[in-house]
Amino acid sequence: MPELPEVETTRRGLERPLRGRHVVRVIVREPRLRWRVPRTLARELAGTRIEAVERRAKYLLLRTNVGTAILHLGMSGSLRVIPATTPAAKHDHVDLVLDNGQCLRLRDPRRFGALLWTRDDPMQHALLRHLGPEPLGRGFHADHLWAATRRRRVAMRDLLLNSRIVSGIGNIYANEALFLAGVRPTRPAGRLTRTECERLVKSIRRILERAIRAGGTTLRDFSNADGLPGYFQQTLQVYGRTGELCRRCGNSIKTARLGNRSAFYCPKCQS
DNA sequence: CTTTTGACCTGACAGC
DNA sequence: TGCTGTCAGGTCAAAA
């Protein structure tokens, strides 16, 4: 589910209820996520004070006075702050109980998410160390994309999903940004022109900013920290619209199978 | 090195 | 009402 805009929406919703709060207790009902929740996490996190809620790519970082909890929502994860007395439903795997009677609850039916703990600089953690620039940050620009695409045969859609080149973009926004830039998802990366790289950088920024403003995209089960859906799905131009009409030219939206995942495009608007 | 494939999971949905 | 097959927002590790 969650790509950068959904994770950022979650982060913004968590900041107020979490910052400055103490974690009094940690309940791990199901430790088997993408990686096993460390046995030490409950003990180390209990008693800490949450100083900041940050995001890097699709990771959420809960910075405490002692260390940092690294969270990933995988495909189906969501986080909510609710009264600690709320009965846990199926797939509610972890609670961080706070000092005000509330708790941060992690739900993740598919268990592709992660909850890890480090006392060191989280940016040096093995999962974060090799991440490419933030697409909304200064490190992401046309020069970077140009250099990263040279001599590469991968389809442009797949290059945008490569978190070492640019982080935080998933299948929805890769497809949407490529539509906006007029580039087919199947186009070999090395065949992009300099101008197209410039257009694509702008398109990626625009799409992500719009999606954040809309509170993210809810296709089936994304909800923000207040349990509410996003509404960017109403704005989608190509993703999931196979057979429907292009909002720009009226042509029929097509699907391409790239690897195991669908790519969507308008054959007239994108080349 | 680059690129592809399989793996990890549950749930929703279509079709029989 | 089953049952089976397909698909889903991620991404790592291993194979080619």
From TrEMBL:
Its EC number is 3.2.2.23, 4.2.99.18. Binds 1 zinc ion per subunit. The keyword DNA damage applies. The active site is at P2, E3, K58, R261. Its cofactor is Zn(2+). HAMAP family: Fapy_DNA_glycosyl. Monomer. Belongs to the FPG family. This is Formamidopyrimidine-DNA glycosylase. It comes from Candidatus Muproteobacteria bacterium RBG_16_62_13.
